[in-house]
Amino acid sequence: MRVQIFIPCFVDQLYPQSAFNMVKVLEKACCEVFYNPNQTCCGQPAFNAGFWDEAKTVATKFLKDFDNTDYIVAPSASCVGFVRNYYSEFFENSSQHNQVKDLSSRIFEFTEFLTKILKIENFGAELHVKATYHDSCAGLRECHIKEGPRNLLNKVKGLQLVEIAEAETCCGFGGTFSVKFDAISSAMADQKIKDALDTGASHIISTDLSCLMHLQGVITKKALPLTTMHIADVLASGWEE
After folding, report:
1. CB environment 37-57: b (16+ within 10 A), e (fewer)
2. Virtual CA dihedral for 206, 207, 208, 211, nearest 10 degrees?
3. Whose CA is closest to 77, among 170, 9, 141, 161?
4. Adjacent-strand bridge partners of 108
5. pTM score, whole prediction
6. pLDDT digits (tens, 9 = 90+) for 55-103
7. Partners of 130 in the beta sheet?
8. What's the sign of the alpha-carbon dihedral 191, 197, 202, 207?
9. DSSP class of residue 161?
């Protein structure tokens, strides 16, 4: 199966290894993976900041960059949710309406693609840790991802998955929300981390590195015994390339 990958801006700049691990897992599933080096951003940061015209310009480029018939896979439910749910507003009653509709049907968050399209849950991964899974707001509410990541993690040898209290509560990141409302954002992160520690877990795993970046900042600053991991890094653990 031919797959195009979309790597979000912050993943490209801050967490490239997670992107490489996503590719490793896709290739292990016998996918033919392609990366268009012309790709940039999906437009979400500009959109959330109120710059809709600029966001539409970026979205128009995204349509051009992925104007093919391949599946598109990204290690971020946030970006996938934005493309699926908001591009239609940009291009409503335009000549690109059908192109957007087609794109929305082809783009998937990484774990969603594994479980719903490839229908594979066991990749032979091995990681001996006790971990809890964080439902990102975008994954849960925009992409309706819930059981898939948990099914994947339950197939990882040595990984003990425990549920966190208030699993569906936001971690407090929310993009610019964490900047504009830093006190509220920090308090939400503190609560999420406390809930994770209460489970006895040593790791917090999620589909979204934006959430994990936010939580890891607090964890590092307070020197807490927790580690964050993107699920692609987990699924690429413990097996030879």
Report:
1. eebebbbbbbbeeeeeeebbe
2. -20
3. 141
4. 73
5. 0.93
6. 999 999 999 999 988 999 999 999 999 999 999 988 888 889 899 999 9
7. 160
8. negative
9. E
User: Do the beta carbons of residue 80 and residue 87 sit within 8 Å?
Assistant: no
pLDDT tens column, 121-178: 999 999 999 999 999 988 999 999 999 999 999 999 999 999 998 888 888 777 677 6
In the chain, the amino acid numbered 49 is A
Rg (the chain; Cα; Å): 18
CA–CA gap between residue 11 and residue 76 (Å, rounded): 9
3-class state of residue 84 by DSSP: helix
Nearest to 193 by CA among 215, 162, 161, 177: 215
From the CB of residue 96, how many other CB atoms can be counted at a distance below 10 Å? 15
Sign of the CA dihedral with 84 first, then 89, 92, and 96 last = negative
- Three-state secondary-structure class, residue 34: strand
Partners of 2 in the β-ladder: 32
Q: Tell whether domain 130-235 is in CATH 3.30.300.
A: no
Can you read off the two tokens belonging to residue 206? 């999620």
Nearest to 137 by CA among 168, 160, 113: 168
Query: Where are the chain's structural domains?
Result: 2-117, 130-235
Give the Cβ contact number of residue 106 at 10 Å: 15
